[in-house]
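job 3f2a | input accepted
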Amino acid sequence: MKAMKTITGVLLKVLDVLSIVLMVGMVVFLLIQLVARAVFTHGFSWTEESAKICLIMLAYVGASMTSVNGVHVNITILNDALHSARGRKVLFVLQQLLAMVFLVLVFVFSFPALEIASKSVTTNTHINNAIIYSIIPISCVIMFFGHLAKIVRQFASAEYVAIVDEDRQEEKPERKEEDGDK
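job 3f2a | predicted structure (182 res):
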């Protein structure tokens, strides 16, 4: 559990720095374009494309951060409908596993797309598109780890252990009553 927390912490710091760099880069590229158009009445062709690349990468880095942090948007209608704490825990794990299956599928199918993208370059910056879109499988791996970490935290938390112990205590008297009736 300690290793998982350490890895998660380091990963979040790297993603934080990367997101800051991408955001600053995007703002700088757009400011260069703005100033160039205002001063020279013509912008640079590479600035808009560079800002778009930063935005694409920032979206995937942000998705990775929310997954590792566990702060992504959730639909809680099923969770709210369940009255059993154990049922909510099972639903939580199923949701994480479903997300992990989806990420594996995206990861697998991103490689044929990367192969196609590798045959072209961006119009103005002449960057190979495979470099830009390699963020997809990388972010899938990071998000997969984030969901796995949530499952591990769920089972290692004192709250989960207390709920399971409480459920077991509630089940024991029912069994004794059944045995006494026979």
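job 3f2a | The chain has a mean pLDDT of 87.
job 3f2a | closed
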